[in-house]
Amino acid sequence: MKIIAAYLSLFFLGVFFFCPNAVAQNNNKAILIGISQYADIDGLRYADEDVRMLHAMLTNYAGYRSADIVLLLNSEATKQRIINAIMDLVRQSQKKPLDHVMFMFAGHGLPPNIKSSTSNAFLAPYDAQIVTPNGKSAFYKESGGLINNETFINKAWLIKQLSDVQAKEIVLILDSCYSGAKNFGALFAENLGFTVELEGGSGEQRGVVIVQKKSAVDLSQTKIAFIASSNENQPSAEYAELKHGALSYCIFEYINTVRKNTDVSDMREITVSGMYSNVTKLFDQVEVRGASLSSRHQPVLFAIPSYDTIIGMKFVSVNGNKKPRIKTGTIEIISDPENAEVSIDGVSTGKRSNCSLELTEGKHMVSLFLRETNYMYSLMVDIKDGQHQQETISLRGALAVESFSDNPSMKLPKLKAYLDNQEVEVSGKQMKNIIAGTHSLKVLVENVEKTRQIEIRPRSPLLVRYKIIREAPKPPPNNNADNVSF
Predict the structure, then answer these.
(1) Which of 33, 65, 101, 306 has the fewest CB atoms within 10 Å, counting from its CB?
(2) Residue 3 pLDDT more than 50?
(3) Which pTM does this prediction carry?
C-alpha cells in the first residue's frame, strides 16, 4: 500500500512586487499574493503575513485604494487565478498606461537550476504539484533542455507578461533563495532590449548589476528596479526571529523608521536608491542567531535602463507618524489562545494577550505571535485620543483529514491521524479550535506511515487528502527444479 504525498525541499520563499510611485491615483494597480498553505507542498510560516502587512501599509498610510489592489491569499492563489490577475493587469495597462504597478508574490519557488539543468518553472501557486497523482515527477524537459512543470508559473511566461505592462515605473522585488538569479534578471532585461554589462560595485552600489541598452537609451523607457534578497547561489529564508522573510522585514523596518521621523501632517517620499541603500545597511546590522543577514545572503539590484536613471525613482510615499504633541488612547487586545506575544509597529511590548496598551493617536500595526506554533497575525488599529477600544482575535483554525482511492470497489482501510503526536478523530468532519501555526501531521494506514508539516490559519480551513493505493502481493519465488540452470 502507498500513500502519495508531495514535498518541496530546499526551495524558497519568493516575494515579488512592483512598487513605483505608491501614491494612489486612478491608474495605479497592484497584485498581492501570499501563500503559506499549500495543497500538496509543505507550508510556510510568514508568506501570507508578509503580504497582508504590505497590503495594510499601502491602504492605510501609503495612499493606495483597496479597489486598485488584487489580494490573493492561500487557497485563493491558484495558478489560474494568478494568471488571470496578471493578464487583466496587462490588458488594463495597454488600454490606459499606468503610472505605478505593484506585484508581490510570497510563497514557494524554484532555484534557477535543477539537476544541473536550467529551470523554466518558477513560482509555486497554491495548487502546484511536485509529483503527479500517480506518483510520478511533475517535472519534464522542454525542447531545448529546459526543465518545466506545468503546475508552476514559469519564467518565460512571467517575463513576457511583465514586459507587456505599460507603466512609467516598475520595482520588482524578490525575497527568496537564489532570488538574484541571472537567468531571470538577464532574460527580463534581454526581453526589453537590454544586456547585462557588469555586476558588483562598492559603497552605495554594492550588489548593483548594471545593464545597458543595445542602442541609445530612450528616456521614455519604463524605469525598472529589480531588487533581490540574495545572489543566485545564496539561500535565503524566512526567520522566526524576524517573523518575516529577510527582505520583507528590512523593507517594513525602513518604512516604519521613515514614518516615525516624519511629521503626521506630511507625506515622505522614499526613493528606490534610498530603500536599497537602507535595506543593505539593515542586512549588515540585523543579526539572527549570532550572525548578520548579510553573512548569509546579500541583496542585489538590477537597474533598467541604467542605475543613474532609477536613483530618484519613487519607491513609495508614506504618511508620517510623528506628532507635534502626544495624544494617546488605549486598546485591549483579547485573543484565543491568550498567550500570544504582542508587538506594536514591529517592536515587542513584552506583554502577552490578554492585555491593555496605551498607544499614541493614529494607526498602528498590532502583531500577535504564538511562539509554540510560530504563527504571526497582524492587524491595523486606529487609536483615537482619550478613547478605549477592544479587539478580539481568534487564533484558531480548522483541519479535516480524508483518504480516498481511485478504485471504487476498494474498501478504504481505517486511517489514524496524529496532530503533534496526539491522536485525533478522523471522520471526514472538520477538527476545529486548532491553534494557528505550524503543526506536524502524521497518518497511519495499516503499517504505512506518512508525516508532513501543515499550516493552520483562522478563517481558512485546511483539507488534507491521502490517496490509498493497495498494491498486489508479489508472487512467491519458484523453487521448481526445472528452473535450475548451471
Answers:
(1) 65
(2) no
(3) 0.72
